[in-house]
Every structure is written in structure tokens, then in C-alpha cells.
Design goal:
GO terms for molecular function: L-rhamnose isomerase activity. It comes from Streptomyces fimbriatus. Pfam families: AP_endonuc_2. Keywords: Isomerase, Manganese, Metal-binding. InterPro entries: L-rhamnose_isomerase, Rhamnose_iso-rel, Xyl_isomerase-like_sf, Xyl_isomerase-like_TIM-brl. 45% of the residues lie in helices and 11% in strands. The chain has 386 residues and is of the alpha/beta class. It has a single domain, classed as TIM Barrel (Alpha-Beta Barrel). Strands 1-2-3-4-6-8-9-10 form an 8-stranded parallel barrel, surrounded by 6 helices. Strands 5-7 form a two-stranded antiparallel ribbon. Helix 3 links the parallel strand 2 and strand 3. The chain binds alpha-D-psicofuranose and manganese (II) ion. Manganese (II) ion (MN) binds next to loops.
Length: 386
């Protein structure tokens, strides 16, 4: 197989998971702008996600967020998803929106609140059993705002204890993905602020615990591809929450702010053997001012483009240049791949998959946006936190 054919074959296997919450209304703490046609329940979110998959061919699963996507019958929801051509993906927990969680959840000083948080996480595993989801994605808003507010070390002990209980509950083929974030909503200490803390807990827990890298959760200037390379080397990279940031946790379309960074990340993924179903490639985005479905299609395409470029790196030439200490040549090999216009290649890939080569144009021509705007009238639109 030629290198190009191998790249095309790999691109056809790509799977980017889209988040249910990206289909609902969202905004900043200043304003949530409602949009016509936005889903009113999890089923309508799945219908929209199915459109993203229909036009891209590489978005076969949808992440749920509990309680935002709470339903009576999760097995029925999974069936509904499959009838629409997608599957349910990671179950995201939420221990940050109840009044009880003012001082934290799993790290809270009060054992009763910790119990409530762990019970929620256990409920998420029950949901995974019903949906067939393999990943429980954990992000904790826990932390403190003031020096002395709580005992930093004791909070780590509580975290370890709570995580261990949930870990024990995981079934065959199920994993927990622990997400870190360097600040917000806590500003003095965050209980899982960085990959090192997440890694230390996951290492202690065992092989079913893996770290998830949300690209928006780092301080400016952080070399995220180094973190990716290190976690892959340790066998501890569980997945990504992809988005873009200009400042902090902006949650904008992935690849919009810094496509070169996305390429560098995807190169380390490919280089480290991470382009496999063992690593979950998820989006975690909130589209505030742009139309939801096209923005998600654009994000999926941006991940595809970065992946295509990463797959085109001439690894032999790169290794030779690196081994001979040829700094300029090594850099040139990498930049050659980055500067390749992969859009014609991706158009070919889509045609070979029986898809329209232009997903955004095809979506626009499909009339779906007009249809949902006309049909989804009345009721309560889904929104961040609802
Ligand atoms: C937290 O900022 C986060 O990245 C976590 O993944 C949450 O589950 C998600 O955002 C919710 O918006
Ligand atoms: Mn995230």
C-alpha cells in the first residue's frame, strides 16, 4: 500500500464523538443566545448528531451529560440513536450544579455531600450499563478559593477514596476517564488541576482509569503535544475533549484558534500509536453565536484535516533528519506535511465512502436547518445547565 493509500484507509476509520450539549443553546455568563430549531430533548439532540454523522461519515457516537440528558429509559434512548445511525458514547458526570456542591463534591469536607457525589457517579455507571457506553468521563469543579479554606492534602485523600469506590463498580470493558482543568470555578486550588495529578490518581486506580486531555484546560503556552506524547508512552491517554481557546476554557470550534497546535497534537497521537479506538476523540464545545450543526461539522472536518496532515508526515525522512541532527531538515519535514492542502484528499476519501465531498454544502442543501426551525416550536429548548 502506498503512503497515500494508507492515510486514506486510516482516515476512513476515524471516529470523532460529538457532545449532546453542543446542540443545545449556550452562551457566556453574560448572555445565552437562543437559536431556532435547537433540540428540546435528548432525542432531538441525537437527531442533530445523526446529521453530523450523515454528512461527515466520521462522527458515529454522541456523548451524554447527566443530568442534562436524563431520560426514563436509557436502553430505549440507545435504540433510538441506533435507529438514526449513531451510538451513545461517553457518559459525562455532573457534580457541579447543585447547591450542595458549593465547597466541592467528591472532595467536599462533609461526608454526606461526598456520598451524594459518589452516588451520582455510580448512577452514571448504571446508565452506561443500559446504554452500552464504555467510558465514564469525570470532571470535578472541586477546589478552594482561599488559602486555608480547606486542607489541600485531605481533599486529595477524599478524591482518591471516592474514585476508588467508582472504579470498583466499573464492569468489563468499562473505563473511567479523568479530566483535569487548571482553574475555574475554583481559583486558589483545583483538586484535579493538571495531567500529573490526574495521572497519579489513574495510576493508583489501575488500568481502567485513564486521563482525558481537554485542549482548553491548560495555561497559555502549555505544550499540549508533550503531555499527549507522555500519556501515550505511559499507556494512560484515554481520550480528548477537543475545542479551541484564545484565552482559557473558551470551548470554541476545535482548530479555529490554532490549527497548527491541533496538527502537532495529532502528530503525537499518530506517532505514539494513539490513533485507535482505545483513545476517544471527543469534542467538548459550546457554540454561542454560530449555528450549532454546521459548527460541529466544521469542527469534525478540522480534526480530519489535522489528522490527514499528521498521517502524511514522512516519518522515515523525519527520523533520518533527527538522527543526523539536521535540525532544519527535521523541521522542514514536519512543516511540509502541515503545509499540505489535504482538502482534495479528504474530498476523495468522502467520495469513496459514498458521501458528498463537501459536508457543509451538503448539509445546507439538505434543508434540515429549515425543517427543525419550523418543526421544533414550543416547549423548552435545551440549554447549558438544562
Ligand atoms: C469542564 O469545563 C468541561 O470541560 C467538562 O468536560 C464538563 O463536563 C464540560 O466542560 C461541560 O461543559
Ligand atoms: Mn471537557
Amino acid at each position: 500500500m502506498t503512503e497515500l493509500a494508507a492515510a486514506k484507509a486510516a482516515l476512513k476509520t476515524q471516529a470523532v464523538e460529538t457532545p449532546s450539549w453542543a446542540y443545545g443553546n449556550s452562551g457566556t455568563r453574560f448572555k445565552v443566545f437562543a437559536q431556532a430549531g435547537v433540540p428540546r430533548d435528548p432525542r432531538e439532540k441525537l437527531q442533530d448528531a445523526a446529521k453530523v454523522h450523515e454528512f461527515t461519515g466520521v462522527a458515529p457516537t454522541v456523548a451524554l451529560h447527566i443530568p442534562w440528558d436524563r431520560v426514563e429509559d436509557y436502553a430505549a434512548l440507545a435504540k433510538f440513536a441506533e435507529e438514526h445511525g449513531v451510538k451513545l458514547g461517553a457518559i459525562n458526570s455532573n457534580t457541579f450544579q447543585d447547591d450542595d456542591y458549593r465547597l466541592g463534591s467528591i472532595c467536599h469536607p462533609d461526608a454526606a455531600v461526598r456520598r451524594k457525589a459518589v452516588d451520582h457517579l455510580l448512577e452514571c455507571v448504571d446508565i452506561m450499563d443500559a446504554t452500552g457506553s464504555k467510558d465514564l468521563k469525570l470532571w470535578f469543579a472541586d477546589g478552594t478559593n482561599y488559602p486555608g479554606q480547606d486542607d489541600i492534602r485531605a481533599r486529595q485523600d477524599r478524591l482518591a477514596e471516592g474514585l476508588a469506590e467508582v472504579y470498583e463498580r466499573l464492569g468489563e470493558g468499562q473505563r473511567m476517564l479523568l479530566e483535569y482543568k487548571f482553574f475555574e470555578p475554583a481559583f486558589y486550588t483545583t483538586d484535579v488541576p493538571d495531567w500529573g495529578t490526574a495521572y497519579a490518581h489513574c495510576l493508583k486506580l489501575g488500568p481502567k482509569a485513564q486521563v482525558v486531555v481537554d485542549t482548553g484546560h491548560h495555561a497559555p503556552g502549555t505544550n499540549i503535544e508533550f503531555i499527549v506524547a507522555t500519556l501515550l508512552r505511559e499507556g494512560k491517554l484515554g481520550g480528548f475533549d477537543f475545542n479551541s481557546r484564545f484565552y482559557a476554557d473558551d470551548d470554541l470550534m476545535v482548530g479555529a484558534a490554532d490549527p497548527f497546535q491541533l496538527f502537532r497534537i495529532m502528530y503525537e497521537v499518530v506517532r505514539g500509536g494513539g490513533f485507535t479506538p482505545e483513545v476517544a476523540f471527543m469534542l467538548d464545545q459550546c457554540h454561542n453565536i454560530e449555528a450549532k450543526i454546521p459548527a460541529i461539522i466544521r469542527s469534525v472536518m478540522n480534526v480530519q484535516e489535522a489528522t490527514a496532515k499528521a498521517l502524511l508526515v514522512d516519518r522515515e525522512a523525519l527520523a533520518a533528519a533527527q538522527a543526523s541532527g539536521d535540525v532544519l531538515e527535521a523541521n522542514a519535514v514536519l512543516m511540509d506535511a502541515y503545509n499540505t492542502d489535504v482538502r482534495p484528499l479528504l474530498r476523495e476519501v468522502r467520495e469513496e465512502m459514498g458521501l458528498d465531498p463537501e459536508p457543509l454544502k451538503a448539509y445546507k442543501a439538505s434543508g434540515w436547518a429549515e425543517r427543525i426551525a419550523a418543526e421544533r416550536v414550543g416547549g423548552q429548548q435545551a440549554g447549558w445547565g438544562a
